Amino acid sequence: MSRKDTLRVAIAQIDCELGNLETNFQKHLDYIQQARKEGVDVLLFPELSLTGYAIGPQTVDMSLDRNDPHLLELARAAGPMWTLVGFMEEGVAAQFHNSQVALRSGNVAFIHRKLNLATYGRLEEGKHFAEGRYYESFQLDDPRWNAGTLICSDAWNPALVHLAAVHGTTLLLLPIASTNSAVDGDFFNPHGWAVTSEFYAMIYGFPVCMANHASGVSGLDFWGGSRILNPYGTVVAEAGEKEELVAADILYEDVKRARYRLPTIRDSNLDMVLRELQRLSRRIGIPEVSRELPE
Fold this sequence. Notes:
295 residues, 7 helices, alpha/beta
């Protein structure tokens, strides 16, 4: 069994041009090359990094299937480095998803489809994408490192982060597309993401990599601020507003000690949570979910 106590993780905070696949593709190749030179084990790009955050009727034309030559070329360029890229996915039965794909050694290793489509404030994802149906994670070379991906507003449903944690996630990868003006009212997104990422890392004892878009040519008011946090909720690397590669080492020893001292997952009491959800479902008239679910 391969053991890797320390992982070098990095975030490619890039300025994604709306709808310009070829320009964004070349930028991905450049950052992959840079990250490999720096000995990175896991490289994370922002939400919808290949297309830019261009949500609208153009979804049909910009969507790629999982075997698209652009994705396979990025997978070859990644070599042994786990590389996570955001794209609009044409899935089964002509359904379109906001997806993050893990690429490595010429292959598509894993895909997460956004579960909680943002349909609030200025956001209209539910009009254009089908939601994902399941949460899954994937193991890195050392199976103690179990990587889970949630995309942007997935993390604004705390139940999904809790689900990721009790699934055994030990590294949370969080690609986002956050602008200053996405949510109405007095909400301030940079502050909201700072609080959210620090809380989740600390309460569940896993490192968090949060990758946002850089501010630039997209016409949207992205604020950058990508960050890497250790399992105590402390920021160990953080980007500014513009394009850059930020990297840090994370230690499995820290995960063990954080979870021993603050045993949120140990004490999660899944039996009680499941019982209460079932009781609530009966009370409000939701049909019981079949137990014949994929393992």
